[in-house]
Amino acid sequence: MQRRSGESLRRHGPVEDRLTTRVSVTLKDGSTKAVLSLEALDDISKSKEKAMATITIDKRPALILIDLQKGILALPTLIDPDEIKTRAGRLAAAFRANTLPVVRVKLAWSADGGDLPPGRALIRDPESAPPTAYSEFPEDFPPHPGDIVLVKRHWGAFTGTELDLQLRRRGVTQIVLAGISTSLGVESTARSAWENSYNVIFVEDAITDVDSSSHAHTFTKIFPRLGEIATTEQIIDTLKGRSMDPAVGGSITR
Questions:
Q1: In this structure, is residue 4 part of a structural domain?
Q2: Which end of the chain, N or C, is surrounded by fewer C-beta atoms within 10 Å?
Q3: Which domain holds residue 85?
Q4: pLDDT, tens digit, 9 for 90 and up, residues 36-52
């Protein structure tokens, strides 16, 4: 699949502006906090030098929101899940305003656990099917009519689903990724997208993880090999420029 012409935008500020802030999230029992380590901050800072100066949005991108569901939004993530949810909502509104696909992906299994991933992994998570509420979308962030809703049984959104079919039949050449978590659902989906010749953009301030080292490794070592990195505001600003003149699109320089 060849890259189609699109809109370009200049990166604004370093990658670490939104990732190196010391963000802590207290667990319900008040005993544990998740923070970005100094090593993670240093890795992200170094990766900024390699960041692409210009990000291109294709004419037919789709927004894919990974696992923004009750059970996963309850985890002690590095960025407050409410912030992730708010930014994801703004991105979704911008895509819908331009009649572009919005895909809501959630992770779920049958009550008997018969479709849980098999194997002899040293860490099996989960070992049994979680309750139904785990996979429900939050009441304050439900899918909209017209959104594509997919249920997955693995980390990645492509494996065992009709995501590729839904995208290709809509002429999509690029996916914009946001959600939880960086090193599992988002990274797995991105790897499959890249292998299937989709262009990929990662929304850096709308993606988070529960582990600082995993988050930093994926953002600095893996994502730059699979696609481009932008912020929520950059994506929205570019789509606003497009909506003013759909035939031409829009570009912004930072």
A1: no
A2: N
A3: 13-244
A4: 555 555 555 555 444 44
